[in-house]
Structures are given as structure tokens and as C-alpha cells.
Design goal:
alpha+beta; Immunoglobulin-like; 2 helices; elongated; C2_dom; metal-binding; metal ion binding
């Protein structure tokens, strides 16, 4: 939240695994609101049935701050295998903020990444108690096999 008690939220969508810019999409920022609605369609092209079977969509909500750095609010991760071709799937999910993981500064970046992944996996197996709820996100996803497209239409938070 900003000093006025409101936020300037936006959504970042990443198709994982993958580090190229084509895997990252972003909505416009909604100004001065705690209940944003994005009337935007974000589309990934060239998505295959194989991608759907093993990729994950990471949806992050952030608060834009022009005076300092943008603040992470929360995220969800949706395995695309939950989608069926040509059917819209609706989600109403709690945003979560992972509890920060301790990582010794002497670890290399690769080892730190593996360590974080294993820690996340361990936490997920132990249940939801280690995650902090950060609000909810409502969104719909649809995958068109013939057009090879993944559509992330409007989303809303509350």
C-alpha cells in the first residue's frame, strides 16, 4: 500500500520453465485501488500440447512505486496440465507470499536455486501452513490446441 492506503497493482505472468522475454507478460498498472480489475487479454502464442503437459504459469501481483522499488504482493502458480483444450478454466485462488528462505552468501547462484527449489518442494509437501495469504486472484485460462495459444483474459484481485 502507498501512503494514501491504496495500491497501484499490476500483474506479471511468466511461463515456466523458460527465461526468454517471450515467456513474460505484464498488465497495465491499475492506479489507487485495493480491488483491481484488469480488462486485458494476455496471450502466449506457439504453445504446444507438450508445453501444456509440463509447464507452469506463475502469476505475480506487484505494487508499482514510482518513488522506490516496486513491492511484491503475492503470487500463484498454476500447472497448465490442469487445462483442457478449448475449455475455459476459472480460478479463484489465494495469493501467497513464500516465507523467505535463508541461503548462505557463499553458495553459488546455481546451488542457491537448487536449494530454494528443494525447500519449496519440502514446504509444499508439509502443507499450507508455511505460506502467508496475500489476498485473492480471480482469473480464467484457456488453451486452444489448433491455434497453439494460451489465453490469460481479464483478472481481478480482492
Amino acid at each position: 500500500m502507498d501512503f494514501n492506503g491504496l495500491a497501484d497493482p499490476y500483474v506479471k505472468v511468466h511461463l515456466l520453465p523458460g527465461a526468454c522475454k517471450a515467456n513474460k507478460l505484464k498488465t497495465k498498472t491499475q492506479r489507487n485501488t485495493l480491488n483491481p480489475v484488469w480488462n486485458e487479454d494476455l496471450t502466449y502464442s506457439g504453445i504446444t500440447d507438450e508445453d501444456i503437459s509440463h509447464k507452469v504459469l506463475r502469476i505475480s501481483v506487484c505494487d508499482e512505486d514510482k518513488l522506490s522499488h516496486n513491492e511484491f504482493i503475492g503470487e500463484i502458480r498454476v500447472p497448465l496440465r490442469r487445462l483442457k483444450p478449448s475449455q475455459k478454466k476459472h480460478f479463484n485462488i489465494c495469493l501467497e507470499r513464500q516465507v523467505p528462505l535463508a541461503s548462505p552468501s557463499s553458495m553459488s547462484a546455481a546451488l542457491r536455486g537448487i536449494s530454494c527449489y528443494l525447500k519449496e518442494l519440502e514446504q509444499a509437501e508439509q502443507g499450507p501452513g508455511l505460506l502467508e495469504e496475500r489476498g485473492r486472484i480471480l482469473l480464467s485460462l484457456s488453451y486452444s490446441s489448433p491455434r497453439r495459444g494460451l489465453l490469460v483474459p481479464e483478472a481481478r484481485c480482492g
